[in-house]
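Retro notes (design track)

What went well: tokenization of the new backbones is finally stable.
What didn't: we kept losing track of which sequence belonged to which structure.
Fix going forward: every design gets posted as structure first, then sequence, in one message. First example under the new rule, 406 residues:
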């Protein structure tokens, strides 16, 4: 008999239906009339009796139809049932996605070039008439370039003779920039769905109120003082003509460090919370170079010295960092070791015997040590700030795609 009970498809359907209708009745009990409650309970009892007595398929089918008719008569229909079901599915999917993001892997975009050439940040490039690739491609080519290579193009032409005067902060919608306004010849214009920091990457320099003060001579990556007055443009000349290479988008492994401590040389992502001179609401990515209680020195040969031991290309995770030719001067976005200058490493300037890492703290440095704001400037930070470690570059499809970085 037990085998017949488990093997009966009709019996399983009857049991599932009874449980489902019972839940609906319990949820609506406070808004139903006594007559409706009595009618539903009577139909439920009949089906429950048939289940307990293991009635035949024909009897169970009649009782299920009777319960269906009672539910249609007495229970109140849920408004917009289809929409409610879709919303429930969406909420479950979001909950699962948030759980994966919180406990397993988290997507992360590299905004700056401090880890180049290991991992690339957003790279703007101004077009000029002398460049052979100054022509912006058509729509299909732009779509291909974006999804495959991470290239995006921006072209804003002067509506009349004049100058760019001021910029307003972008208006955000959810996580995206919806629009941004700019002032040209005392008239305001709107750019819809602008690229992040569009005008700044095009080289424009503004004050805190948004007034345009000038433009970088060679584009947005130049030093603060290397800029000229805002140019006077003729109608049809470009205010912005920009090609941007998206920074590497990667997954951060948030699981591993729940089971072990970070190791020297691993590329980690951390919060800037409570780090002096840094905004407290950002995430940085750097290479872990020093662990708690270690003494760190910057050697004149561009090698780190940890507790008296010099790191070199044989140190795990530092083979590329120290692959430079000592006879070649350090240069930006090339492996040049760890450079020591008063501008880049102020906390080491007055510490001939090095800097001591505090207990429970780490030191990190970017691989692009000619242009990296890191522990050489602001020191160590609490290991509780660590989010996770580099895991996988998923976009764009460059030579760094996958697990190439180390």
């Amino acid at each position: 008999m037990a085998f017949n009970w488990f093997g009966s498809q009709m019996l399983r359907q009857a049991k599932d239906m009874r449980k489902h209708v019972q839940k609906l009745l319990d949820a609506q009990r406070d808004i139903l009339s006594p007559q409706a409650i009595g009618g539903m309970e009577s139909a439920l009892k009949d089906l429950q009796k048939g289940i307990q007595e293991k009635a035949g398929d024909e009897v169970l089918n009649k009782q299920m139809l009777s319960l269906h008719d009672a539910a249609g008569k007495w229970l109140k229909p849920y408004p917009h049932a289809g929409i409610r079901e879709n919303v429930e599915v969406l909420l479950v999917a979001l909950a699962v996605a948030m759980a994966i993001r919180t406990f397993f892997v988290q997507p992360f975009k590299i905004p700056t070039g401090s880890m180049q050439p290991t991992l690339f940040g957003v790279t703007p490039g101004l077009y000029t008439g002398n460049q052979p690739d100054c022509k912006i491609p058509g729509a299909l080519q732009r779509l291909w370039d974006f999804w495959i290579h991470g290239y995006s193009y921006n072209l804003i032409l002067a509506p009349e003779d004049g100058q760019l005067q001021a910029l307003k902060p972008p208006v955000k919608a959810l996580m995206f920039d919806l629009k941004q306004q700019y002032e040209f010849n005392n008239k305001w214009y709107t750019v819809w769905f602008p690229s992040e920091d569009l005008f700044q990457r095009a080289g424009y320099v503004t004050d805190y109120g948004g007034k345009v003060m000038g433009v970088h001579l060679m584009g947005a990556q130049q030093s603060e003082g290397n800029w000229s007055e805002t140019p006077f443009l003729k109608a049809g000349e470009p205010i912005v003509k920009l090609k941007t290479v998206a920074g590497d988008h990667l997954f951060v492994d948030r699981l591993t460090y729940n089971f072990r401590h970070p190791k020297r040389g691993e590329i980690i992502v951390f919060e800037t919370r409570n780090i002096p001179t840094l905004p407290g609401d950002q995430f940085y990515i750097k290479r872990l170079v020093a662990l708690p209680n270690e003494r760190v020195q910057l050697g004149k040969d561009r090698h780190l010295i940890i507790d008296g031991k010099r790191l070199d290309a044989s140190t795990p995770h530092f083979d590329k960092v120290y692959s430079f030719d000592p006879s070649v001067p350090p240069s930006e976005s090339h492996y040049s070791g760890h450079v020591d200058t008063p501008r880049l490493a102020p906390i080491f300037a007055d510490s001939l015997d090095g800097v001591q890492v505090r207990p429970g703290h780490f030191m990190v440095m970017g691989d692009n040590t000619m242009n990296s704001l890191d522990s050489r400037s602001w020191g160590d930070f609490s290991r509780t700030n660590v989010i996770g470690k580099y895991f996988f570059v998923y976009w764009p499809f460059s030579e760094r795609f996958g697990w190439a970085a180390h």
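Added context from the reviewer: The chain has nine helices and 21 strands.
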